[in-house]
Amino acid sequence: MTLGIQKVGQVSINVRDLQRAIAFYRDVLELQYVWQTNGMAFFTCGEVRLMLGTPEDPNFDHPSSVLYYSVDDIQAAFHVLSTRGVMFHGPPHEIGKLGDIAVWMAFFTDSEGNTVAIQSEVPAV
């Protein structure tokens, strides 16, 4: 019997200030806000549910993994987020090729100090 894992269903991101984080993910990144309860807020991002929450226990109080949000046009997304005050670690740049596809990324820090990225896959030139 195989385990059968098929996709990521939910990702949790630790936050210090839940209301500030809600505003960032809802208003700056434009993720779809779903609901808030007991120190947690939930968003949808495609088929993945994103949970923002304050750590209940010191064992869970750590920076998040890097989340990579796919966008169609990384230059346009970089421009929009920059005008919204997002401070990027650098401009979008090609990180490599997967056959005839070029993978581009740009990294930034969210309102809670977590590293986040936007990424785009485009035809290689």
UniProtKB/TrEMBL annotation:
InterPro entries to which the protein is assigned, alphabetical: Anthracycline_SecMetBiosynth, Glyas_Bleomycin-R_OHBP_Dase, Glyas_Fos-R_dOase_dom, VOC_core
SUPFAM superfamilies attached to this UniProt entry: Glyoxalase/Bleomycin resistance protein/Dihydroxybiphenyl dioxygenase
Segments forming domain VOC: 7-121
Pfam families: Glyoxalase (PF00903)
Protein name: VOC family protein
Species this chain originates from: Alicyclobacillus fodiniaquatilis
